[in-house]
Specification:
heterodimer
């Protein structure tokens, strides 16, 4: 197995069932998704030796479907980063653009797919962490609607935002993988059975796609590349701030879709101007609470037993956490502390509601929305680490989708003059993954 | 920067609340960065109040006894254990 780009933290095979829809697939799994008996580090020294005693639901579903898991992929520590450089196990290189970051935080997952070392991979997307690395590595990444895929066994960072999603070379393969992992789970009360909603939407549309037995999601069937008559909304706010070359590739791809029968119009989403700050306030606040479990007693690095619990706990976390994790835990604690809740957290929730409302309006007059996935091409390794605020701003186009709990897909749209991959993002209505799969399949 | 400029004592206080020890260099770096990041977060003041129409659903499942991890599995990742228990520091 190739390791020159540091895509895997642990290369240990987990065999799947003998037959099933994925029996000839290898599917790598991000290292914050629990695998029974195989260490799950979250890219952190804190969990360097942590071996989960159970499988995540998505891992059970993968192996039951016959997939072989070739290893656990590298990631930004606890999912916190946009470049996969904050991993305690070293940065991952970008196989599609060596010397550049693979994006984050699921950078290892996108890299092993781009390098051809796995047929597909699972990542997790809290503010764009599936879409960003897929875009930077020139592959397809899909962030499902919140509640479509079980999060049981995912080591939580920001529960109200994150979803597990597939990364694959083509839209059809990503859709096939999504079919396997989607569906309600009694161990995750935030999941729901979306099949009923899909059938209702088919009936309303008098659609011939109507399912015969209603047993499957049939996402892969939607990857038919047929965008004739499709209406695409383009949020100007998500295009204006982007790099010139990225914007050029984006419009070329839209022209291609237009030549296939789609039409596009500009839409206004004023709320997205505040999405990045709302996302970070909410994500950091949830992180400060979630990461309190790492105390060096039940698991994590022991801080030793000198002093009392608080002193030992604080020492354990000083040693076990990297800079970005400390930064977010502290900022989250600050945002939730007495006197600041109204100033930051409550305002962020208002922004979240506003973003959701804006998207609902825009999607009432378009089948999907389209924008560049990332406003910039992949940065050079080491370029952005010193300025966290600049790194946070790179998430401008992906975070609004997580705040609104909507599905989104990124597909390769082309390259800049320096051969750096550019991704195009489609956003669709809640639980209508088929719409973004159809749009994406016209390009990849 | 706003009225609430962040100083090193604020960073130490919040690190104390979050139970994370910091060295002096980290305190210095975070003091500068938190100033920038928090003043960026303050642009949330421009957000209008929005009616939230979230449908709340009761998702409680029946309270039934199920299998759980056995003691050995539950203790497997603990740095120190004693006679089937987690071993930790004194509480205060």
């Amino acid at each position: 197995m190739s390791s020159e780009y540091n895509g895997y933290v642990t290369a240990e095979r987990i065999e799947g069932a003998d037959d099933g829809p994925l029996s000839d697939w290898t599917v790598a799994v991000k290292d914050n998704i629990s695998t029974e008996g195989v260490r799950t580090t979250c890219g952190s020294d804190m969990l360097a030796d942590y071996v989960p005693p159970y499988d995540a639901t998505v891992v059970e579903r993968l192996t039951e479907a016959g997939a072989t898991i070739p290893g656990k992929t590298n990631m930004d520590e606890f999912g916190m980063g946009t470049t996969t450089e904050t991993s305690a196990f070293g940065a991952t290189d970008n196989p599609a653009a060596p010397g550049h970051v693979p994006g984050g935080s699921s950078g290892g997952s996108a890299a092993v797919v781009a390098a051809g070392d796995a047929d597909a991979a699972l990542g997790t997307d809290t503010g764009g962490s599936v879409r960003c690395p897929a875009a930077f590595c020139g592959v397809v990444g899909l962030k499902p609607t919140y509640g479509l895929v079980s999060r049981y066994g995912l080591v939580a960072y920001a529960n109200s935002l994150e979803q597990i999603g597939p990364i694959a070379p083509t839209v059809e393969e990503a859709a096939e993988l999504l079919e396997v992992i989607a569906g309600p789970d009694e161990r995750d009360a935030t999941t729901r059975d979306a099949r009923e909603a899909l059938r209702a939407s088919d009936e309303r549309a008098g659609d011939a796609r109507e399912q015969e037995n209603g047993a499957d999601y049939e996402f892969a069937d939607a990857a038919d590349g047929d965008v004739d008559g499709m209406s695409i909304g383009v949020p100007t706010e998500l295009v204006e701030g982007a790099d010139e070359e990225v914007v050029e590739v984006f419009w070329d791809a839209l022209d291609e879709l237009e030549s296939q029968g789609a039409s596009y119009h500009e839409v206004d989403l004023p709320s997205v101007e505040h999405a990045v700050e709302a996302y970070y306030v909410i994500a950091m606040s949830e992180a400060s609470s979630n990461l309190a479990r790492f105390d060096g007693v039940r698991y994590g690095q022991s801080g030793g037993f000198e002093g009392d619990w608080n002193e030992s706990f604080a020492r354990s976390r000083e040693e076990g956490f990297g800079q970005e994790v400390k930064r977010r835990v502290l900022l989250g604690t600050y945002a939730l502390s007495a006197g600041y809740q109204d100033k930051y957290y409550r305002k962020a929730q208002d922004a979240r509601a506003w973003v959701k409302q804006d998207f609902d309006e825009a999607l009432s007059e378009a089948d999907v929305l389209a924008s560049p996935t990332m406003p910039v091409p992949p940065m050079e390794l080491g370029e952005s680490l010193d300025d966290p605020l600049q790194m946070y701003l790179a998430d401008a186009n992906t975070t609004p989708v997580n705040l609104a709990n909507l599905p989104a897909i990124t597909v390769p749209a082309g390259e800049t003059g320096d051969d750096l991959p550019v991704g195009l993002q489609f956003v669709g209505p809640a639980f209508d993954e088929r719409e973004i799969i159809r749009a994406g399949s016209a390009l990849a | 920067m706003s009225d609430d400029a962040v100083d090193p004592d604020d960073v130490r206080h919040v690190a104390d609340l979050a139970r994370v020890d910091l060295d002096d260099e980290e305190v210095e770096r975070f003091t500068a960065q938190f100033g920038d990041i928090l003043s960026y977060f303050e642009t949330l003041d421009e957000v209008p109040e929005v009616d939230r129409e979230a449908d709340l659903t009761n998702v409680m499942r029946p309270d039934e006894v199920r299998d759980s991890l056995d003691r050995e599995e539950a203790l497997r990742n603990a740095p120190e254990t004693e006679e089937g228990y987690f071993k930790g520091p004194k509480v205060s």
